[in-house]
């Protein structure tokens, strides 16, 4: 199973990459929205960890595009410091499978990814 | 002289004396008659043009002639009055428009003379400052300091255009007061214009947020301190034991978790980034949709359907919402063939979700672009909604495409504001520009027609204040500049701490239940003292009411030191030859309509009208100043009889 990690902040990418590999997944990394879309087309991930606040194309735009172009069973988890309830509603509305606000528990995140990839609801 | 002659002389003298006596009696009866006629003619001329002289005894021709003259005069006066009224109507309409506009302002507005007398105020000012302090002719210095006004005067001498903003404390309120001087066209200082705003809640909110933010900063610093120390320990001493290492890692985990929850808590409490509170208003969701629909109909030719809205209220910037939706509708109309949209709303969490929907047409990607465009040269829809603590996005589902806006905070309906009560006559009573020209004269020399009065009446449980009877209602109305201000009444019920006997209930209609739970006399009297401050008290048979109040002075701590006039005594002065001095009798004589007797406010109003009429009659009789009136009243017969009631 492959997880695509999308975030412009290298510090969080380092931790997420380490965690996902330790959990047994293959990983790919994208540092902005456009790179995320081209990576998704190339590597066909099973799950995307997607940051919302990125320069240029933001996470919601990536999400909308992914839902338009990728298979419907692609899982998308939004990760963000923006915790506003209306933003959460927006993410869910646009098709995110989960919306996690920072800071988060890494154990919880790994469990969430596991549940989603097993086909269990979050 | 013979006995017969003597008898005849005596007889003749007696007859002569009798005749003389009869003549004297006739003359004095005629004098009394004439003096009564004079009084009644005066009444017609000065106070009541509709009054007619009644014929008693002789002089019926004279009476008929006087009445005919009175008829002619009344007709002529009515005609003149009609013409004058027609000529004045336009000016009144303009003035009333201005006054009504002022009255509708949400900001409290007060206009004063140079020495701080209020001559205009609006409903917002009245509801902000309360009816005990606000009123025509009253001093604004019960609300703001004289210092502030002096300071404004100083500033304007240096810079005519400046206005001054300051804070004032009024009871438990903190007010922001903006004072600007007003000038006549020739530059002479006219008075001051004040705008007042209640800052109490706003200040409290800001202080709370500041304090809350400070606490969060401190908590974060402390957490970071612990984390950094633990990390540096682990990093700096790689040969520490496993237990020591796990201990420090646990500290780091613990502190980060606690900091995280503390921040969530803060976000929850403060909802930061909710945008400027100033532009948000409470509105029913149904009204918000209707408002937005109206904006749309005005600007685009799209058909707008409004779905039924939930029965909720929301605190939101209605203009931001309208602007966002209108921008989208404009794009839809320009860049697609969409001709109709629908609006709907529902609560989601604590916010409102407002959907603008359409079928077919552009894809959400394109709509998303529109959300990033600037709206009429200003911020984009996205920025606009974001700055108000919300989100906006384009989406689609089975029913079609939509623009979804989530913002505001949903809540219960707010407390209804006090309704604005406008008096029934066409001239609103919250301004009187004549007061600009008023000067201060010592009370005794002041003309009765110039003074301000508080006409009042009380209802009581019975007639004997010494035997445990109590006041249960006080009603009062002010007279300023010769006008009865029906919009500035004082109308309070009082809990007497005892039952109201059925006999007295029959008289004034108040029962024990009506007054139970009402404020006590001391509280109402304190308010009444403020209401009546700087005025002359007027009442009918006012000695009765004053007796009650004087007896309660020590208990209530309120001492009324106003001068007092009694309409009963004044009527005795004005119409000494009439027997009837009851309020009804005087009212009938002066042409005052009596409605709803024996309710304190209603009686006060009738007494007020009667008083105004009496002032005119007295003026014609040479009684013009307060001192004149007080002296004349004291020297009437009734006053002598009632001395015990007045005390000294």
What does this structure look like?
The complex is a heterodimer of chains A (122) and B (648). By secondary structure, chain A is an alpha/beta fold. Chain A has helices at 10-22, 33-43, 59-69, 85-94, 106-117, and strands spanning 2-6, 26-30, 47-51, 75-80, 98-101. A 5-stranded parallel beta sheet of chain A has the order 2-1-3-4-5, sandwiched between helices. Helices cover 47% and strands 20% of the residues of chain A. In chain B, 49% of the residues lie in helices and 19% in strands. Chain B starts with a helix and ends with a helix. Chain B has 21 helices and 18 strands. A 5-stranded antiparallel beta sheet of chain B has the order 2-1-5-4-3. Chain B has a 5-stranded mixed beta sheet with strand order 7-9-10-12-11. A 5-stranded mixed beta sheet of chain B has the order 16-15-14-17-18, sandwiched between helices. The longest helix of chain B has 45 residues, at 3-47. In chain B, a hairpin with a 2-residue loop joins strand 11 and strand 12 (400-407).
The gist of it:
The complex is a heterodimer of chains A (122) and B (648). Chain A is an alpha/beta fold and 122 residues long.
What proportion strand of chain B?
15-25%
The helix count of chain A comes to 5
Backbone shape of chain B: elongated
Low-confidence stretches of chain A: none
Q: Would you count the extended β strands of chain A for me?
A: 5
Task: Give the strand order of the largest sheet of chain A, numbering strands 1, 2, ... along the chain.
Answer: 2-1-3-4-5
Question: With helices defined by DSSP (H or I, 4 residues minimum), what is the helix count of chain B?
Answer: 21
Envelope shape of chain A: globular
Distance between the termini of chain A: 18 Å
Residues in helices of chain A, as a percent range: 40-55%
β content of chain A, as a range? Answer: 15-25%
């Amino acid at each position: 199973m492959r997880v695509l990690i999308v975030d412009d902040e290298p510090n969080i990418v380092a931790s997420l990459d380490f965690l996902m590999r330790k959990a047994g997944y293959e990983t790919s990394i994208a540092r902005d929205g456009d790179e995320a879309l081209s990576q998704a087309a190339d590597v066909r991930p099973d799950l995307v960890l997607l940051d919302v606040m990125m320069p240029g194309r933001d996470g919601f735009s990536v999400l909308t595009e992914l839902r338009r172009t990728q298979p419907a069973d692609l899982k998308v988890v939004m990760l963000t410091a923006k915790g506003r309830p209306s933003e959460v509603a927006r993410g869910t509305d646009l098709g995110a499978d989960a919306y996690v606000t920072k800071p988060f528990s890494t154990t919880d995140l790994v469990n969430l990814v596991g549940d989603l990839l097993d086909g269990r609801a979050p | 002289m013979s006995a017969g002659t003597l008898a005849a002389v005596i007889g003749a003298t007696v007859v002569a004396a009798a005749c003389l006596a009869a003549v004297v009696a006739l003359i004095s009866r005629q004098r009394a008659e004439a003096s009564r006629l004079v009084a009644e003619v005066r009444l017609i001329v000065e106070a009541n043009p509709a009054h007619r002289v009644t014929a008693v005894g002789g002089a019926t021709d004279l009476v008929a002639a006087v009445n005919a003259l009175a008829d002619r005069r009344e007709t002529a006066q009515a005609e003149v009055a009609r013409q004058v009224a027609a000529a004045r109507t336009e000016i009144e309409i303009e003035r009333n428009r201005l006054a009504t506009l002022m009255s509708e302002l949400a900001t409290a507005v007060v206009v004063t003379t140079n020495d701080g007398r209020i001559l205009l105020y609006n409903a917002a000012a009245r509801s902000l400052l309360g009816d005990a302090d606000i009123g025509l002719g009253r001093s604004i210095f019960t609300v703001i300091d004289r210092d502030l006004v002096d300071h404004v005067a100083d500033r304007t001498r240096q810079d005519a255009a400046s206005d001054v903003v300051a804070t004032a404390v009024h009871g438990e309120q903190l007010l922001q007061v903006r004072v600007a001087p007003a000038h006549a066209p020739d530059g002479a200082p006219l008075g001051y214009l004040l705008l007042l705003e209640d800052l109490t809640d706003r200040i409290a909110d800001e202080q709370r947020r500041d304090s809350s933010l400070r606490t969060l900063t401190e908590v974060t610093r402390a957490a970071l301190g612990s984390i950094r120390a633990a990390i540096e320990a682990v990093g700096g001493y790689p040969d520490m034991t496993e237990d020591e290492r796990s201990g420090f890692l646990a500290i780091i985990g613990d502190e980060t978790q606690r900091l995280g929850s503390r921040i969530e808590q803060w976000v929850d409490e403060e909802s930061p980034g909710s945008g400027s509170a100033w532009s948000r208003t409470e509105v029913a969701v149904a009204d918000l949709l209707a408002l937005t629909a109206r904006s749309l109909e005005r600007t685009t030719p799209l058909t707008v359907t409004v779905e039924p809205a939930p029965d909720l209220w929301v605190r939101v910037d209605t203009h931001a919402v309208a602007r966002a939706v209108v921008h989208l509708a404009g794009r839809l109309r320009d860049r697609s063939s969409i001709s109709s949209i629908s609006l709907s709303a529902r609560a989601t969490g604590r916010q409102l979700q407002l959907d603008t929907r359409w079928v077919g047409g552009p894809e959400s990607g394109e709509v998303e672009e529109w959300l990033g465009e600037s709206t009429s040269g200003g911020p984009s829809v996205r920025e606009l909604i974001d700055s108000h603590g919300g989100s906006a996005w384009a989406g689609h589902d089975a029913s079609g495409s939509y623009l979804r806006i989530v913002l505001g905070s949903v809540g219960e309906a707010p407390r209804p504001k006090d309704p604005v009560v406008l008096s029934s006559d066409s001239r609103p009573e919250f301004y009187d520009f004549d007061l600009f020209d008023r000067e201060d004269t010592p009370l005794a020399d002041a003309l009765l027609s110039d003074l301000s009065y508080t006409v009042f009446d009380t209802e009581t449980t019975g007639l004997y204040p010494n035997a445990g009877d109590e006041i249960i209602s006080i009603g009062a109305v002010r007279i300023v500049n010769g006008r009865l201000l029906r919009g500035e009444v004082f109308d309070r019920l009082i809990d007497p701490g005892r039952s109201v006997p059925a006999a007295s209930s029959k008289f004034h209609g108040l029962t024990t239940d009506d007054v139970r739970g009402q404020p006590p006399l001391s509280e109402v009297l304190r308010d009444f003292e403020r209401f009546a401050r700087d005025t002359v008290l007027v009442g009918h048979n006012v000695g009765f009411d004053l007796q009650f109040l004087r007896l309660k002075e020590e208990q209530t701590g309120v001492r009324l030191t106003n001068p007092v006039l009694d309409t009963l005594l004044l009527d005795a002065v004005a119409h000494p030859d009439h027997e009837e001095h009851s309020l009804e009798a005087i009212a009938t004589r002066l042409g005052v309509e009596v409605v709803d007797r024996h309710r304190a406010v209603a009686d006060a109003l009738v007494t007020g009208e009667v008083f105004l009429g009496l002032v005119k009659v007295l003026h014609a009789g040479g009684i013009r100043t307060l001192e004149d009136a007080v002296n004349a009243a004291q020297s009437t017969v009734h006053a002598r009889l009632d001395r015990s009631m007045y005390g000294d």
